[in-house]
Amino acid sequence: MKNKELTIARHQMHLTQRQVADRLGIRTTSYQRFESGMRVPRISTAIKLARILNSSVEYLFQSSTSETDMKDKKNGVNN
């Protein structure tokens, strides 16, 4: 599922995907996977990303976390 919050926050900061990726020190394709919902960043990357986008980790990844929790429960993984 696409991470709409991440895309919206980036647009509000008037940044391109490449600019955000450069500031994070990662490849543009890696960042694109975060926005497309294909990948969830490591917590250290998520924290940097929240700072770059003047937002919070909770806001940016609220739907990703919920989906991960649901998948874990479905697969019998307890946190």
TrEMBL record:
GO terms for molecular function: DNA binding. Residues 6-60 form the HTH cro/C1-type domain. Gene3D superfamilies: lambda repressor-like DNA-binding domains. Keywords: DNA-binding. SMART domains: HTH_XRE. PROSITE patterns: HTH_CROC1. Transmembrane segments: none annotated. Pfam families: HTH_3. This is Helix-turn-helix transcriptional regulator. The keyword Glycoprotein does not apply.
